Amino acid sequence: MSAEQIVPDSEHRGLMARLPQRVRDFALLARFDRPIGWWLLFWPCVWGVWLAGAGWQLVLLAWLLLGAIAMRGAGCVYNDIVDADLDRQVARTAARPVASGRISARAAWAWLLALCLVGLVVLVQLRWQAEVVALASLALVAAYPFMKRITWWPQAWLGLVFTWGAPVGWFALRDDGLEVLAALYAGAIFWCMGYDTIYAVQDREDDALVGVRSSALRLGENVRGGVIAFYALALAFWALAFWLLRHDWLALVALVPAAFQLLWQGMTLDPADGANALARFRSNRFAGALVAAACFVVGNAGLT
Q1: What gap in Å lies between CA 235 and CA 220, rounded to an integer?
Q2: Tally of domains in the chain
Q3: Residue 245: inside a domain
Q4: Is residue 6 in some structural domain?
Q5: Is 96:28 a contact under the CB 8 Å cutoff?
Q6: Per the confidence metrics, is the pTM higher than 0.85?
Q7: Residues 241-283: pLDDT tens digits?
Q8: How many CB atoms lie within 10 A of CB 202?
Q9: Helix 274-282 crosses helix 284-300 at what angle (to 10 degrees)?
Q10: What is the per-residue pLDDT across 219-242, written as a single tens digit (0 to 9) for each?
Q11: 285 is a domain residue
Q12: In a 10 Å sphere around its CB, with 0-12 CB exposed, 13-18 middle and 19+ buried, how is residue 54 labelled?
C-alpha cells in the first residue's frame, strides 16, 4: 500500500483541531476523534434494552451511552499501552500518542483510571444483575490486546468484548428469556467479526511484516466472502432471537433493512482500497441503528 493510500489513524478536524496539543493527545488516545467506536459499542446495549420490551428507556440508554464512550476510550488507552511497540512499526498507528512518546505510559495509565471511574459511575446506576454482567467482561477486555499475537481470529475475541452491551442492556431490565439473549448476542458477535475484518484489511501488509495475526490475513483472497458469511450468520442468529421471542414470521421482516445494508457492505467491499474498507466499516453505525429499530419493533409493539 502506498503512502497515498494509507488511511490516517486519527484526523484533526473540527473541535479536535482547535484543542491545545496536550489536551488533543489525551483525546486522541481515547479516540474521541473517532466516534464510530463508541457507536459500535453502544448499539448492542440498545438492542438488549429494546428487545427486552420495556419501551424507550431513554434515561437508561443515556447512561449506557456515557458508559460506552468512557469504556471504549478506556479500552483504546489500554490497547495502546499494551501495543505501543507494535504500533511504532505500523504506518497507520505510528503517530499514536503513546507509540510516538507524546504521552508517557504513566500518564496513559492515569487517563485510563479516570475513564474507568466514569464507567463506575454508570455501573452503579444499573440493577445489580446488570452490574455483575458488566463486571464479568473485564477479563475478556484485559485479554483482547494479546489475541492478535496468538490466534488468527482476534476479531472473534473482539466480538465477545465489543458486543457485551447486549447482555448488559438485557439484564438491566430482566433476567429471563436467556435463549433470546443468547441468540441476540451470538448475532452481535458475528456482526463484529464482519466489520472488524473489514477494518483489518487496512493493516494487512503491516500486520504480516510485524507478525500480527487477523481474520483479514487468514481469509486471504476470500475476505469479501468471509465478511458476507459473518454477516449472514449474524442475521440468522438475530432472526432466531426474534423468533424465540415472538414465534411469528412477520417479526423477521423487521430485519430486512439491516440485511440489505450488510449485503451492500459485503458486495461493494474492495479489500485493496483502504478508503473503501473504512467507509464500509463506518457504515456499521447505520447498520446498528437499523438492527436497533428492528429490536424495538419486535420487542415493544405489544409482542410476547
Answers
A1: 24
A2: 1
A3: yes
A4: no
A5: yes
A6: yes
A7: 999 999 998 899 999 999 999 999 999 999 989 899 999 999 9
A8: 24
A9: 20
A10: 888 999 999 999 999 999 999 999
A11: yes
A12: middle
